[in-house]
Amino acid sequence: MDSATLEWDPAAAALPMRGEFTCEARVRYTLLLTERELTVQKVGTGRGKPGAVTVLELQDCIGCCAYGAEVGADTSAGFAVFFYTVRRRWAGLSSAQRRCRVELRFRVTGSSDPRTNLEEAQRWARAIRQGSSLPTGSVCADVRRPCRFLVLINPQSGKGQAQALFNNHVQRMLQEADITYTLQITERQNHARELVREADLSQWDAVVIMSGDGLLFEVVNGLMEREDWEKAIQTPLGILPGGSGNALAASMHYYSGAQPVWGEELLVSCGFMLCKGLVSHLDLVSVCMGSSQRLFSFLSLAWGFVADVDIESEKYRHVGAARFTMGTLVRLASLRVYKGKLAYLPAEEPQPPQSHVRSTSNDFNSSSVNSHLSRTLNCQNNLLHNSCNSNNAHKPNWTSESPGTTQGPPDTLLVPLDQPVPAHWTVVKEEDFVLVMAVYQSHLAEDLIAAPASRLDDGVMHLIYVKAGISRQALLCLFLAMEKGAHLSTNCPFVVYVKVRALRLEPYSPKGTITVDGEAVEYGPVQAQIHGSLARIIAG
Ligand SMILES: Nc1ncnc2c1ncn2[C@@H]1O[C@H](COP(=O)(O)OP(=O)(O)OP(=O)(O)O)[C@@H](O)[C@H]1O
């Protein structure tokens, strides 16, 4: 199958193209191919209404292939077109939209010469493919074709069904889009990280992660630990939701402007984006810890309520995404105050004076508190007082023994952790918090829109903190509003939202939990800086 990337020139493709073909059921159709659409009109006398017209948008097409006849005497050829069109689905009184697969096959029988028929089928297939790959939106490139992906699957992610989900939904889509891939099932924690650290990346056009956000976190850090990190981190990444939080996958779906979907429908949406192969820039954040360990993060840095829920809810993993709901309710019932110092560099602030420039070498995926469960919680409208420091010390996945990296771009906005923050930073006067989180993508979970204004490469961290004193009920309302991304307009006096380029957090308690991209990391003072557009991701 000829699938080389060609400059799309409608004139060269002689558009519009018209033709008459039969489908597998011998019904005759006329096809009209324009720059953006394929119009299919029934002309035969088979069952169904003659003359019915279907218009399919080429932007919904992921592939088209031509094929010759399989049996000797048959001189016909054919081509198959694969669309994933957006359809409305009614659920009760409300409707939702999702992508549904449409496969069309047409036979070319115009000539008695099989080669002529095959050439005609190839001409149509080529023109449909070219029309389908017209870049849209703010993409920086598209994955060259034909292409080969490395697909990493974490069999333990989510409810442990990532591999089955891949086989049932994604495998066929990749075939239809003419994408070949090498499948690697991860065997343990850090396997993916080690693999991409050592791999010959030139073999693949993209590294795709079918898991939760934790496996992508490993891959990003594995790439940044390489000597050739600058080139390696330019490898297009892909994400397919197979975990329980799936925050980046949900963010990318949200950025595409589509209506929210969950579970397998989100997987099909992300599979579709992967097949379209449009590459966008992705911001990364370098996170520096007291031990001089430095990690790279694409999603979130969290402390307090959010971090505790993320880690404590691990034990409810078998229930999938609902694990965050359960964790949130449990933590709400024993709400704590977390004491510490928070400082940040606001995004609108001018660049720091040069004297501060030096290189340091050094989720809550909490989620849906659904209203049914919320009613079952006996929420008291009592104000919390400075109850206690966090005493929930969880074993971090990423400890100071983990390699981390001293490589990567210098953190020009940060000074060493043992020095005071630069004078032009804002130091938060409160020192009692319920939660502190910096997020750099819109979602913290499939159904939790923490930073609705965020974009893949907006060059800022969205810092949200909740001051102590908020009632359980108000906090619950905040999470419920977050399901629609409405929490920042509730005017809750305990909630602060600010866009920042860098921040520092110094917890006072000796034990506790800090998460980066949903993974527990070394607990203690931590600071972070955004590095705009450092990585690349296949997005819609
Ligand atoms: N074969 C494996 N066995 C056990 N753990 C693994 C394996 N492969 C990867 N891991 C680890 O599993 C952890 C969780 O993975 P991941 O975050 O991708 O899924 P999840 O927790 O279900 O999803 P989410 O982060 O969206 O909630 C990661 O830290 C990863 O290192």
Automatic annotation (TrEMBL):
Q: What is its EC number?
A: 2.7.1.91
Compositionally skewed regions (Polar residues) per UniProt: 354-369, 393-409
What the entry lists under Pfam families is as follows: DAGK_cat (PF00781)
Q: What class of enzyme is it?
A: transferase
Q: Which GO terms describe its biological process?
A: cellular response to growth factor stimulus; negative regulation of apoptotic process; sphingosine biosynthetic process
Q: Does the keyword Oxidoreductase apply?
A: no
- Predominantly, its location class is membrane
Region (Disordered) location: 348-369, 390-409
Q: Which SUPFAM superfamilies match?
A: NAD kinase/diacylglycerol kinase-like (SSF111331)
One Gene Ontology term of the molecular function aspect: ATP binding
Name of protein = sphingosine kinase
Organism, scientific name:
Silurus meridionalis (Southern catfish)
